[in-house]
Amino acid sequence: MNPFRFSAVALLTISLLLLGLCELGFCRQEDSSIRVKLGGFSDFKRSPQNNALIETLARFAVQEHNKQQNAILEFARVLKAREQVVAGKMYHLTLEAVDSGKKKIYEAKVWVKPWMNFKQLEEFKFSHNVPSFTSSILRFKQGD
């Protein structure tokens, strides 16, 4: 038997065994937040409203949508943010924007590769209107 072939098979077997042990959680890690699988999602632990990166990406999404669709949405705030590990990161954002004086909810996906200075709007779609409150509802609430 070829000694090179044996060592390649042994190396491959050991590598697969170690990879399997790590996937089962037997590898020691100092910080559990480091372990994110490719394609996996993670919610932001901090409030998305206070996260400068997320707000910047949401504003970028609205600006790009306005350019692409010749629209005039105005960014209001971020409601929810999740990130997905891809070739870079895909940020899934739920945001509020003002369209013709009415607040509406939109879903946006922004793909970022910071090492390449790359940022691209992948998707921007209307989700639903923000419920409006009438003065009668507000009066009822004040009386409680």
Give the key terms:
Nuclear Transport Factor 2, Chain: A, 144 residues, 3 helices, 5-stranded antiparallel sheet, alpha+beta
What is shown here, in short?
The protein is 33% helix and 36% strand. It has 144 residues and is an alpha+beta fold.
What does this structure look like?
The chain has helices at residues 3-23, 52-69, 135-143; strands spanning 41-43, 74-86, 88-99, 102-113, 118-129. The chain has 3 helices and 5 strands; from the N terminus they run αβαββββα. Helix content is 33%, strand content 36%. Residues 28-35 and 140-144 have low confidence and may be disordered. It has a domain at 38-132: Nuclear Transport Factor 2, Chain: A (Roll). The protein has a 5-stranded antiparallel β-sheet. A hairpin with a 4-residue loop joins strand 4 (102-113) and strand 5 (118-129). The chain starts with a helix and ends with a helix. The protein is an alpha+beta fold and 144 residues long.
Set down the secondary structure blueprint.
Blueprint: H1 3-23, E1 41-43, H2 52-69, E2 74-86, E3 88-99, E4 102-113, E5 118-129, H3 135-143
Antiparallel strand pairs: 1-2, 2-3, 3-4, 4-5
Cα radius of gyration in angstroms: 23 Å
The coarse overall form would be: elongated
Could you estimate the helical fraction of the residues in percent?
25-40%
Side by side, the strands of the main sheet go: 1-2-3-4-5
CATH class of the domain at 38-132: Alpha Beta
Q: H/E order of the elements? A: HEHEEEEH
- Number of DSSP E strands: 5
